[in-house]
Design goal:
With 199 residues, the chain is α+β, with helices and mostly antiparallel strands. It has four helices and ten strands. The strands form three sheets. A four-stranded antiparallel sheet has the order 3-4-5-6, with no helix packed on it. The protein has a four-stranded mixed sheet with strand order 7-10-8-9. A two-stranded antiparallel sheet has the order 1-2. The N terminus is likely disordered.
Length: 199
């Protein structure tokens, strides 16, 4: 079990229902199952704070509370002070030409079937998925960023529909090529969606 301690002014303490008055006051939430944030809601005068877990690019967990206007975050640590981190390996690379039509972000029917099968096979050994979209360099940076985000989001939606945890979804456009040059072969390699499995 894990204990969360927050120092937030103006939030009602879940234990004694008194409002904290300064940054020195704290909210202690005890008996949180390891690795889960639970359904924790705290209300101040007009906001609802949602507690969740965010995993950074290094695979380490952070407790997060956010009301949409401002947020608070602290590293998730074990009782002896060690950070809670997951190993993250690339477990799937989707060639965009096989899963998406040209300049489109909707996954093809065959691509959806393949992705559903992939998530079913890997979910038992995976804590969550990080999904990153990439494009080639032939359009503008702005268009490539938008397309890569939309493609990553489309793959993430299929994952979520299968009931798996999606930790992070990002689009990198043309900024992280795996092949250099202006050949059609290089462009083809760079158009991809990468799936990382956090274990």
């Amino acid at each position: 079990m894990t204990c969360m301690v927050f120092a937030f002014p103006g939030i009602v303490n879940a234990e004694n229902h008194e409002e904290t008055s300064s940054l020195e006051d704290v909210i202690i939430i005890d008996d949180i199952p390891e690795g889960r944030a639970g359904n924790l809601n705290f209300r101040d005068t007009g906001s609802e704070y949602q507690a969740t877990i965010w995993i950074d690019p290094d695979g380490c967990e952070h407790w997060v509370m956010d009301d949409g206007f401002e947020g608070y975050m602290t590293p998730h640590r074990t009782r002896d002070g060690r950070p809670v981190c997951h190993r993250s390996d690339i477990c799937g690379v989707l060639p965009a030409d096989q899963f998406f039509a040209l300049n489109q972000h909707n996954v093809t029917a065959a691509g959806k079937r393949s992705l559903r099968e992939f998530f079913k096979k890997t979910q038992s050994e995976t804590f969550g998925y990080l999904i990153y979209g990439h494009t080639d360099a032939r359009a503008s940076d702005e268009a490539n960023m938008a397309l890569s985000r939309l493609r990553a989001s489309a793959v993430a939606k299929i994952a979520q529909d299968e009931g798996v945890r999606v930790i992070d979804v990002k689009g990198f456009g043309e900024r992280q090529p795996v092949a250099l040059g202006n050949s059609s072969a290089a462009y083809k390699q760079n158009r991809r969606v990468e799936i990382y499995c956090a274990r």
